[in-house]
UniProtKB/TrEMBL annotation:
NCBIfam families: PRK11269.1 (NF008431). This is Tartronate-semialdehyde synthase. Residues 191-327 form the Thiamine pyrophosphate enzyme central domain. It catalyses: 2 pyruvate + H(+) = (2S)-2-acetolactate + CO2. One of its GO terms (biological process) is L-valine biosynthetic process. Signal peptide: none annotated. It comes from the Bacteria. Belongs to the TPP enzyme family. It comes from Crossiella cryophila. It is an enzyme of class 4 (lyase). Its EC number is 4.1.1.47. Keywords: Lyase, Thiamine pyrophosphate. One of its GO terms (molecular function) is flavin adenine dinucleotide binding. Residues 388-540 form the Thiamine pyrophosphate enzyme TPP-binding domain.
Length: 571
């Protein structure tokens, strides 16, 4: 077997694992890897901040389903990646962050930029490891990809001391391949029990979480729901798992990212089949209210997720796709396709009677009108990227999604600045797609330097900024404290001029202050982005003190009592 530089073996592994793009910043302690990378088929995107690189790798991973890769040098490069690692861990996104490191003999001597990044990263990764020997290089990376993909997916960090990077190893790519990833199959007994519980319920719901999308199980979900005639709700991370224009779509329940009719429907349900959902507190709110009057079946690929938030009536360990397929198989054995009964009709009634208005013509613009325009202008296969704050809440409440991996949101960690680098990753993975990053003014300013990356590499997408010149969500949270402290972003006569900021990057931009001009601006930006091959900004000035509708718990909808006894679906 031929002896080659161990970093060349690493690059061959990356190629064979399906990595075609990596995001990073070269530095002295990682140059042996870069020396090998320059002769590969992999495209390297030089980012402006390592956190931005992790978010780009995250966006690439979310939209492809493969493992994203970010590279940095020693010291602060690794510490800058921690937010991105935490974000990926929280949302079950497989990425690998690679860091350079001082020579092993110098690690105890406070060498320049030598930091124990492995220990720092352990709480926010599935595996953090330092390569000790050149001979381990290919195998450590193989294991990293396996771990990132296995079970509940997540991030891995690999630290590479400079002296180890310079070593040789015996490696033949023709004799190597990705390690197998176990796909846990459910046991038949709990699957049958789940079907019996669903058939016995009068008002069952299926709750689709992010695990349905990660598990590529949307078709199986739809098949089960249609066969049994059971309405489907989604969590924020599950948006796109079920088309929102389907007759069985039952909205979204929760405290912030929710629909009023979805909350009402959930409160009337008596049995919930939750698949790939972790019962996050922004979804459940008060657990007593959330659980009261209904049974729960919880399906998850990670056994320790079962019972973590509350004990379900039935737990099933399994990958979302084979589990949904097994549920459908046993459902078909048990009953013929069922005609939807009174319960789906009741949900349709709630949908009609409990909408939120989005047709405002007010000036300043009311935020719901922005999402109405986004819904009506962009086709269903558009990929939207959004992050945290009031605009995430409005997005969850108003934005419609129809396909998996078309609505990307950093749900649990919620780092400001996520949208721009994540959109870069999405567009690198799918250059043929229309990509729209919806952000707030403050979030844009966190990592706006990444606009330069998209401009340099001719990565076109549309940025829609919801600008209220406030830390809007914090300002709203301060209201019960009778304060309005440290949240104003406005200064001088205009505050920061985002149109001029974009111009400084060589990117077009327009500011919109009237609702009737939003759609025209979206049409211009979408066409202009592809023409100039750069990001284009549409800055929408909304009313400064716009608040998002939120409830203290699901029982905020008190006027709707549980429905009376309903006729079951017909076999």
């Amino acid at each position: 077997m031929k002896s080659i530089p161990c970093m060349e073996a690493v690059v061959r592994v990356l190629e064979s694992e399906g990595v075609d793009t990596v995001f990073g910043i070269p530095g002295a302690a990682i140059l042996p890897l870069y020396a090998a990378l320059q002769h590969s088929t992999i495209r390297h995107i030089t980012v402006r901040h390592e956190e931005g690189g992790t978010h780009s790798a995250d966006g690439w991973a979310r939209v492809t389903g493969n493992v994203g890769v970010c590279i940095g040098t020693s010291g602060p490069a690794g510490t800058n990646m921690i937010t991105g690692l935490y974000t990926a861990l929280a949302d079950s996104i497989p990425i690998i962050c690679i860091t350079g490191q001082a020579a092993k003999s110098k690690l105890h001597q406070e060498s320049f930029q030598a930091v124990d990044i492995v220990e720092i990263a352990k709480p926010v990764t599935k595996w953090a490891v330092q390569l000790k020997e050149p001979a381990q290089a290919a195998w450590v990376f193989r294991e990293a990809f396996r771990i990132a993909r296995s079970g509940r997916p997540g991030p891995v960090l690999i630290d590479l001391p400079i002296d180890v990077q310079r070593g040789l190893c015996n490696y033949d790519p023709a004799l190597d391949a990705p390690l197998p990833v176990e796909v846990p199959q459910p046991r038949a007994e709990p699957v049958r029990a789940a079907i019996e519980m669903l058939l016995a319920a009068q008002r069952p719901l299926i709750l689709a979480g992010g695990g349905v999308i990660v598990g590529e199980a949307a078709d199986e979900l739809r098949g089960l729901a249609e066969h049994l005639g059971i309405p489907v709700q989604v969590t924020l991370m599950g948006k796109g798992a079920f088309p929102e224009d389907h007759d069985l779509f039952a909205g979204m329940a929760g405290l912030q990212t929710q629909t009023r009719w979805g909350n009402a429907a959930f409160l009337e349900s008596d049995c919930v089949l939750a698949i790939g959902a972790r019962f996050g507190d922004r979804h459940t709110g008060d657990l007593e209210t959330y659980r009261r009057g209904r049974k729960f079946i919880h399906v998850d690929i990670e056994p320790t997720q079962l019972g973590k938030v509350f004990e379900p009536d039935l737990g099933i360990v399994g990958h979302a796709r084979p589990t949904l397929a097994a549920l459908a198989y046993h459902a078909k054995e048990r009953t013929r396709p069922r005609t939807p009964g009174e319960w789906p009709k009741r949900i349709a009634e709630l949908r009609e009677t409990l909408p939120r208005r989005d047709d405002f013509d007010d000036v300043p613009i009311k935020p719901p009108r922005v999402y109405r325009e986004l819904n009506e202008f962009y086709p269903p296969d558009t990929t939207f990227v959004t992050a945290i704050g009031l605009y995430q809440i409005w997005s969850g409440q108003f934005q419609r999604t129809y396909l998996p991996r078309r609505y990307l949101v950093c749900g649990q960690a919620g780092p400001l600045g996520w949208e721009i680098p994540a959109a870069i990753g999405v567009k690198c993975a799918h250059p043929e797609r229309t990509v729209v990053a919806v952000c707030g003014d403050y979030s844009f300013q966190f990592l706006m330097e990444e606009v330069a990356v998209a401009a340099q590499y001719e990565i076109p997408f549309v940025i829609v900024m919801i600008n209220n010149e406030y830390l809007g969500l914090i300002r709203q949270a301060e209201i019960p404290y009778d304060m309005n402290f440290a949240v104003d972003l406005h200064y001088g006569s205009n505050g920061i001029d985002h149109v001029k900021v974009m111009d400084a990057f060589g990117c077009p931009a327009v500011r919109v202050e009237e609702p009737g001009k939003i759609r025209e601006a979206l049409a211009w930006a979408t066409e202009e982005a592809e023409r100039v091959r750069k990001p284009v900004l549409v800055e929408v000035m909304v009313e400064r003190e716009a608040n998002a509708a939120m409830g203290a718990s699901l029982d905020a909808i008190k006027e709707f009592e549980p429905a009376p006894e309903l006729a079951p679906a017909a076999d």
